[in-house]
Specification:
By secondary structure, the protein is of the alpha/beta class. It has 15 helices and 14 strands. The strands form three sheets. Strands 1-2-10-7-8-9 form a six-stranded mixed sheet, with helices on both faces. The mean pLDDT is 92.
Length: 401
């Protein structure tokens, strides 16, 4: 049980450090519902994790603070613990999986924490952190399976209710479950009829499977660019909270997450990491069956590595038909490239890359291959170009969308 008074106390503690993040109407997301973005990507440290970490550390005794704190994280909880420790003059040792983005690691280091990189994913870092805690006697700050941490995350629900009392549903990303546990337990005490929908990446869906099987399920591996939610085993507390308070959990694919990241950037000028965009992906791809409702999508973090962002954008452009590739078989003679380019240009596409290869073994001596990358409006536009080339007698060998 998470008492509402505890969440209100956390809100008071956080009033001196955490931002009350904006609720932004995102009209592009749905023509069936009013969809709002709760912009925790603009929270200090770039994610909601500061809330739970800071409140937990505020509850420590002086003797506990002297022993220092220990944490494990894919990056966002690490930054929250590091900043909270810095503000309270506490030594922090943080274990981070080696798969975490470099930007998150360096941001954590900038707050003065001692960083230990561990091969593997979050669960491997967790095991190393637990062993270190036994050796040193420091206080372990769990990223999600701790009632104080959950209470800190629950302050988001208090803010949402203050900003939009007519809220009908809150859509929340799930990794280990701390965020959705705090949000769900809090909002259900304030507004019991408000739906709470959890979202996980299909490749890291431990809570989804656990709720389906009515017991905690540990995945053998997780593989998603939404690294903030790459958790093999949900927490004991958080599993209980999800089973009691969460109405439903849905999953989204890597392509759907990438499309959501791109849509947030283009339509709302919001930079989100993969895990932060899970909620938006669920709404964009109609995983939530609601109409005429006020829905809040919690954008949980914005700490995406710029190198990953570049790949995500490219993947999303391919997914939506805005970046297309053609391989055309041609006779190797003057004017062929000009003719192909004219057809593409006349139909309003933009050629961004051309590669010309002479025919190899198994082809006619005079054959060549033309590989073209184009910017197109959508799949319909692409197929119009492809069909125009075929109508002109060109042989299309392969396409990639």
């Amino acid at each position: 049980m998470l008492e509402l008074d505890k969440v209100k106390e956390a809100k008071e503690v956080l009033s001196t450090i955490a931002r009350k993040t904006n609720l932004v109407l995102a009209k592009f997301l749905s023509n069936k519902n009013n969809v709002y973005l709760k912009s925790e990507n603009l929270q200090l440290t770039g994610s909601f994790k500061l809330r739970g970490a800071y409140y937990k550390i505020s509850k420590l005794t002086d003797s506990q603070k002297q022993k220092g704190v220990i944490a494990c994280s894919a990056g966002n909880h690490a930054q929250g613990v590091a900043l909270a420790s810095q503000k309270n003059n506490i030594n922090a040792t943080i274990f981070i999986p080696s798969t975490a983005p470099i930007s998150k690691v360096e941001a954590t280091r900038s707050y003065g924490a001692d960083i230990r990189l561990i091969d593997g994913v979050y669960d491997d870092a967790y095991k190393a952190a637990v062993e270190f805690q036994k050796e040193t006697g420091g206080v372990f700050i769990h990223p999600f399976d701790d009632i104080d941490v959950i209470a800190g995350q629950g302050t988001i629900a208090l803010e949402i209710y203050e900003q939009l009392k007519e809220v009908d549903a809150i859509v929340v990303p799930i990794g280990g479950g701390g965020l959705i546990s705090g949000v769900a337990a809090t909002i259900k005490q304030i507004k019991p009829d408000c739906k709470v929908v959890g979202v996980q990446a299909q490749r890291a869906n431990s809570m989804f499977q656990s709720i389906e099987e009515h017991k905690r399920i540990e995945l053998k591996n997780v593989n998603t660019f939404a690294d903030g939610t790459a958790v093999k085993l949900p927490g004991e507390l958080t599993y209980g909270f999800c089973e009691k308070y969460v109405d439903t959990i849905v999953t989204v694919s890597e392509d759907e997450i990438a499309s959501a990241v791109l849509a947030l950037m283009e339509k709302e000028k919001v930079v989100s990491e993969g895990s932060g965009a899970l909620s938006v992906a669920a709404v964009m791809f109609n995983k939530i069956k609601l109409e005429g409702k006020n829905i809040v999508c919690l954008v949980s973090g914005g700490n995406i590595d710029v190198n990953i962002l570049s790949r995500v954008i490219n993947r999303a452009l391919l997914k939506t038909g805005r970046l297309s590739n053609l391989t055309i078989e041609l006779l190797d003679k003057p004017g062929q490239l000009k003719d192909v380019s004219t057809i593409i240009a006349d139909l309003g596409a933009n050629v961004i890359r051309v590669r010309h290869n002479q025919g190899g073994e198994g082809t006619d001596i005079n054959d060549c291959y033309l590989k073209i990358s184009m910017e197109t409006r959508d799949f319909e536009h692409f197929y119009a170009i492809k069909n125009a080339l075929i109508d002109k007698g060109y042989n299309i060998l392969s396409t990639v969308q």
